[in-house]
Amino acid sequence: MKRLKIGLTAHDFLNWSGGIDFLWTVTDSLLATPRAETAELHLIIPDSGLRFAWKHAREFLTGKVQARLRSQEISQAFSEFGDRIATHHVDLGQRATRVLSRTLELNILLPVMHSLAPDFPRPWLAYAYDFQHKYFPQNFTAEALRARDRHFDRLLTEARAVIVNSRAAVDDIAKFVPQTTARVFTLPFAPSPRRGWLRDRPEILSRYKVRPPYFIVSNQFWAHKDHATAFEAFRQVAESNRSVSLVCTGSTGGSNDTAYFSKLLGSLERAHIRHRVQILGLIPKRDQIELMKHACALVQPTLFEGGPGGGAVYDAFSLDVPAIVSDIPVNRELPGDSRIRFFPASDAAALAKRMEEQLTAPPSEKGEPEELRSAGRQRRRACGEVLWRAIDFLL
After folding, report:
1. Can you tell me the distance from the alpha carbon of 102 to that of 121, in angstroms, rounded to the nearest whole number?
2. Whose CB has fewer CB within 10 Å in the chain, the N or C terminal residue?
3. Domain range for 385
4. What is the per-residue pLDDT across 187-203, written as a single tens digit (0 to 9) for each?
5. What angle, 0 to 180 degrees and rounded to 10, lies between the N-to-C axes of helices 285-293 and 310-318?
6. pTM, whole model, 2 decimals?
7. What are phi and psi of 341, to 5 degrees?
8. All residues at 6 or more sequence positions from 268 whose CB lies less than 8 Å from its CB, including other chains
9. Same domain, 380 and 321
10. How many Å apart are CA 233 and CA 357, to the nearest integer?
11. Which helix (H) or strand (E) element contains residue 342?
12. pLDDT at residue 180 above 70?
């Protein structure tokens, strides 16, 4: 039997750490199915060549070196797959991808975030992330709003098939891009702990000077993540709980409002709780996971996500870590589970009540490592089956 050759495009997923996590999940899900035994997977990383060198030089001159750092991050993450994945380094742009596709005789490319055009010589499976700009236009410039509209219009009319992370995203495609011609495949909620996550590493907590009890928020400091509600809820909790603290991981930059982060810090200062909120910024994934494992609960106050709970709840669920989550529609797609408790979005008092309940609840038994891994593999297989159905549709 001829082996199917799949190209995994890292191009747009290098721009943010959540993108690397998503690409890793897609790859792991494909490999979790029996079909993977008759397939070759090729990871394509755009981090070499003249165009990339020019981009890297510009970033260096402006004090930003994200392209190089992200390519190193994805190479390190995918090394866990060993020889099940072949890695290829190409230049930026569609031409380099076309050439490599012909050279490797790839049968299909996925997941693709920007249209490769209908005349691309290989089938490609698109990925539509979310329509946040339609719900929170104030978080975007006028130019960015127009660009996102053009992006989704082109992607969803030039792609033959597209994957999404939620039923909410399916509804949004029908609502905002009714002219779409793409077949939509919805990926199921499929968290699974990575190899090594379940081994305790207490030295990581020591390194960051983090001591239980604490709650954790693992979001970038963007307006729609609603740290303000989490901070006000923590202020209320902190009044009667002198030992508890709040730990925040995630990039502190990226918001259109350049004063947004400083405003949040100001609110902590005025509430006299700045010393009890540890803002660690963007830290290595494994460090973030270890901090999450030992938290009282993950707090997810987000006002918008493309997938249920966002990446933070995804990871927490895989590790049996309790999560207190805003009740926005996409989050209501999370599985019914005692580890997940909801509160009305933007309601700091309700969130504080949930946090208080978590502090006084008896310690919950976490699943054994083998149980967590087994449950995760089952979820990944289910996700992989959907991906294979999309591949079969395109081939």
Report:
1. 8
2. N
3. 4-127+376-394
4. 999 999 998 999 999 99
5. 60
6. 0.93
7. -125, 140
8. 231, 274, 277
9. no
10. 13
11. strand 340-343
12. yes
